[in-house]
Amino acid sequence: MKKFLSALLASALLLLLGVMLASCAHECEFSEDWSKDESSHWHACEVSEKCEEITDKAEHTWNEGKVTVKATPEAEGTKVYACKVCGYEKTEVIPKCEFSAAWSMGERTHWHACLTEDCTSFTDETEHTWNKGQLTTPATADKDGVKTFACTICGYEKTEAVPFTGYTRTQWSAALNSTVFENFTYTEKGTVESGGVRSEVESVYKFEKSKAWIKMTMYGETFEEYLAQSEAKSMREDLVSSIKDIASYSNYEYDAATRTYKSKKAVYIESLGLHSNNVTLKFENDKLTEIKFNVTYVESGTRVTIDEIITITDYGTTVVGSK
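The structure corresponding to this sequence follows.
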């Protein structure tokens, strides 16, 4: 009996070995196409259907997914993911929408967004309703101001530039207040053309509190002088008075294109005893820095043209040396 069982077992082993040799007695060649299941992909041997050899097995690498059916408050949605390597797809359910009580917002509209991750559904989208706005940064002569508007529903804010439209009378007066002209440099450059002859004149006045220094260049000759305290005071008062007369607020209107003030009527130039219809003022940092004008008149049959630029600089910093 034992011999019979031994022979039977040996026959079974030989049969199994024969099957294995028959199924694997070849050199594997792997398919270029991916085999796949819900968790992984691989390349299978394509020589024999009975061969179970595989290579390159790896778990799926999922893309970001695409919503194929949007979720709504009434129904679930669907999102499909695909493996970046083999293309195998899986589907996930997007829960029904539940919308946030807080507003989401953009430049033009606001809305209530779905709280579900990756859900792009939203509700109650409407355009902003803007309030009247508030001036948050006043405009200056050197820079536009800023006005801020807020949506009365969601609070989203936008800003608009507020162009400078010129000084008020109060601001103008402050820029020309006599206390401003304690330390400053006044430079006057003029060109006179008469009968085809052109001459240039330059005068520089430097003031430091009670001190003053003058330098004049005329017809090629230069003259310099330090003024006594009483003379310095008188000269300062005369120049400041002249500046204020030329720069009278009612004579000008603001030109936004050039950020200057242009005369809107004839301005009397006391130093010349003449009127000019073309006077321009320039301010920087709320201080008058330039006066420019020209005058043309006829004297004894000869046409005379005067072009003049007055610059006022070094406010508060001018230093007058000693003799």
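The chain has three domains: 66-124, 128-164, 169-313.
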